[in-house]
Amino acid sequence: MSAIVRCEWAGSDPLMTAYHDDEWGVPCHDDRALFERLILEGFQAGLSWSTILRKRDAFIRAFDGFDPQIVAAYGPDDAVRLLGDAGIVRNRLKIAAAVSNAQAFLRTQDEFGSFDAYIWRFAPELRAERFRTLAEIPATTPESDAMSKDLKQRGFRFVGSIICYAFMQSAGLVDDHVADCFRATVNVTR
To answer: Residue 19 catalytic?
Structure first.
């Protein structure tokens, strides 16, 4: 019996493997989950994704389940509480951005009816062929550039094009499982 082939980045870490197998590249249309992913991608900037995954449960607890209504109302006491929480990434700028991003998220929901309706406008057409290696996968695309620019105009922070492309991969707006990965044929619809 042959071993399961996964994207190289999933490695042998059970947490990374589970994330790869169950979440990464799977189309997400739930606003709360999209908010969580966008915020976590911002916190990941400059760190490894495995660091964020290890702290994910603490992030969920600290940020009230990533309920954007609650996070948008955070004040100075919440910032102090979060800066003192050793379970999360304690970066003052990223914490402030999470709060202002929640406020921008709610404005965007109001304008488009849902964040899902807004963000999926940036999903590119499905590619006919898959990348064969991790090295072929781009860090940014014209779509992530456009998403980044639009999010910034709406008041979002920590949403550069690289972060936006990682978000697109996480939320399934793109499916970058490499050709020989067992997940490569799973996500054929959005």
So the answer is: yes
